[in-house]
Amino acid sequence: MPRKKKTKVKIKEPAIKEHSGFRLGDIIFGKDHIGKVYDGEVVHFYPDNKEGPCLMIITRESGYRVFLTSKCSFDKKDLSKK
C-alpha cells in the first residue's frame, strides 16, 4: 500500500515583535503575584489583556509564565526594590 505524504506544518510569524521596550528573544526578569522572581526569554506578547499589557516568557525551571509588563525588567535588582 502506498503511504500518504505528510504535510509540513507552517510556523506563523508572531504579529507583535516588540512591546513596552521588550523584544522577542530578550532575556528578562519577571515578578509574579506572590513576589517570586523568574528569568527567561520573551516568546509572546498580549497587549489587549484586561489587567494590562502582558508578555510570556519561557523559563528553565518552570516552563511558560505570563507577567504584566509593569512587573518585568532587564535587571533583577529593579524588581526586588518594588
Your description of this structure?
The chain is mainly beta. It has one domain: SH3 type barrels (Roll), CATH 2.30.30. The chain has one helix and seven strands, in the order E-E-E-E-E-E-E-H. The strands form two sheets. The chain has a five-stranded antiparallel sheet with strand order 6-5-4-3-7. The protein has a two-stranded antiparallel ribbon with strand order 1-2. Strand 4 and strand 5 form a beta hairpin.
What fold name stands as the CATH topology?
A: SH3 type barrels
**How would you spell out the order of helices and strands?**
EEEEEEEH
Structural class from helices and strands? Answer: mainly beta
Percent range of helical residues: under 10%
Keywords:
single chain, 82 residues, mainly beta, SH3 type barrels, five-stranded antiparallel β-sheet, two-stranded antiparallel sheet, 1 helix, 7% helix
